[in-house]
Amino acid sequence: MKSPPLSLLAVIGVAALASWGWRGHVASRDAAQLARHAQPGDIRMISSETCGWCTAARRWMADEGIPFRECFIERDAQCRADYEALGAVGTPTLVVRGQRVIGFDRARLLDILK
């Protein structure tokens, strides 16, 4: 089996780096807008202790200075009841100004907060 030509590998590498850089730019832009629009109490994140997406969302929002409250369905009976009442199907489930957002969707958060 022949290996791909070096030029093809170079193109793939450049495309991967460009994509990584663009995602970082978009995340940074979203962070600035969310931090500008979010007020304390606007965002509540319902999490699970074993949820990797919850950990990533928590770290990102904390690192970017976006105010949010968090509860864990395994530790807090009211949190679990709220999760079930929302008809949530996974974590993180965010409640942003009263609207349910399943999963961490920066664009959806911005739409609600604007």
- Assigned CATH class: Alpha Beta
Number of strands: 4
Structural class: alpha+beta
Helices and strands, in order, run as HEHEHEEH
Radius of gyration, Cα only, in angstroms? 18 Å
Low-confidence spans: 13-26
CATH homologous superfamily label:
Glutaredoxin
Number of helices: 4
Placed side by side, the strands forming the largest sheet appear as 2-1-3-4
The average pLDDT is 84
Shape: globular
Question: Major β-sheet, in short?
Answer: 4 strands, mixed
Task: Kindly estimate the percentage of residues that lie in beta strands according to DSSP.
Answer: 5-15%
CATH fold field value: Glutaredoxin
How far apart the termini lie comes to 54 Å
The overall number of domains is 1
Please estimate the helix content. Answer: 40-55%
CATH architecture verdict: 3-Layer(aba) Sandwich
What would the keywords be for this entry?
114 residues, alpha+beta, Glutaredoxin, four-stranded mixed sheet, 4 strands
Describe what you observe in this structure.
Helices cover 54% and strands 15% of the residues. It starts with 5 loop residues before the first helix and ends with a helix. The chain has a 4-stranded mixed β-sheet, sandwiched between helices. The chain has one domain (6-113): Glutaredoxin (3-Layer(aba) Sandwich). It has 4 helices and 4 strands. The chain has 114 residues and is α+β, with helices and mostly antiparallel strands.
